[in-house]
Design brief:
The chain is mainly alpha-helical. The relative contact order is 0.07. It is extended, with a radius of gyration of 24 Å. Helix 1 (about 1-20) runs parallel beside helix 4. It has helices at about 1-20, 30-40, 45-55, 60-70, 75-80, 100-105, 140-170, 175-200; strands spanning about 90, 95-100, 115, 130-135.
C-alpha cells in the first residue's frame, strides 16, 4: 500500500505540473520550464520533466518539488494537493482527506482528521464512527506558535495605527482608552509568545516587534 500511495503522490505532482504547463495556462514547454529551474539555481532537465509527466519518474525529491513550484509560480502545496478545495486525497497511506484539510495540515494550520474509536452510542454503548482532528504536539510545533505570534504582531500594529490616528484627530477619551487597551493587550500577547519561542530555542531574532 505504501508504494502505491507514494506513486499516487508523484502522479498528482506530475499531473499538476503538466496542467500548469498547458496552453490554457502558460503554454510553457518542458525546455522552458527546465530553463527556469536553472535560473532559480537548481536545474531540472527537460528530460526529467518529461519523465515525471509521463510516469517514468517514480519519485520526486523535496528540492525538485520546491523548484518546480517556484518555476511554475505556485505554492509547493498546490503540486501536492491540486484538487483544492474539496477533491479527496490520500494524504497518508489509507487515510483520505478533502484537499483543503490536507493543505491545512501541510501548512501547519490544523492537525489531520482521523477516525476515533473513543466514541460510543449512549444507549447501546456501541462504538460510533467519529472523525476528530488531531492536535500538533505543543512541545514540537513551531509553525503554530509562529503563526500565532505573527497574528498578534499584526493586531498590535493595527491597534497602534488606530491609536495614533485617534490621538491626531483628537478623538474622545473613551475611544483613545479603548484603542490603548487593544494595543496593550496585543503587545503583551506578542511579548508572551516571543518569550515562549525563546524558551523553545526558536530563531526569534532580537526584536520583540518582528
Amino acid at each position: 500500500m505504501t508504494q502505491s500511495w507514494a506513486e499516487q503522490l508523484v502522479a498528482r505532482v506530475a499531473g499538476e505540473v503538466r496542467r500548469l504547463r498547458g496552453k490554457e495556462h502558460s503554454a510553457l514547454s518542458a525546455a522552458k520550464l527546465a530553463d527556469r529551474t536553472v535560473d532559480i539555481g537548481f536545474g531540472i532537465s527537460r528530460s526529467v520533466v518529461a519523465d515525471l509527466e509521463t510516469g517514468r519518474k517514480k519519485s520526486i525529491d523535496v528540492p525538485e518539488l520546491l523548484v518546480l513550484a517556484a518555476a511554475l509560480g505556485v505554492s509547493p502545496a498546490q503540486l501536492l494537493y491540486p484538487d483544492l478545495p474539496k477533491g479527496p486525497v490520500e494524504i497518508l497511506p489509507g487515510l483520505e482527506q478533502e484537499s483543503h484539510d490536507a493543505l491545512r495540515w501541510f501548512s501547519g494550520e490544523a492537525g489531520l482528521m482521523k477516525p476515533s474509536p473513543d466514541w460510543t452510542e449512549t444507549n447501546t454503548e456501541e462504538s460510533v464512527g467519529m472523525w476528530v482532528r488531531e492536535q500538533f504536539d505543543p512541545r514540537n510545533d513551531r509553525v503554530g506558535i509562529t503563526r500565532e505570534w505573527l497574528q498578534s504582531l499584526q493586531t498590535m500594529r493595527r491597534a497602534r495605527v488606530q491609536l495614533r490616528n485617534g490621538l491626531s484627530k483628537s478623538e474622545s477619551a473613551e475611544h483613545i482608552e479603548t484603542m490603548q487597551m487593544a494595543y496593550e493587550d496585543a503587545r503583551r500577547r506578542s511579548e508572551d509568545l516571543f518569550h515562549k519561542m525563546t524558551e523553545l530555542g526558536m530563531a526569534v531574532g532580537d526584536e520583540l516587534d518582528g
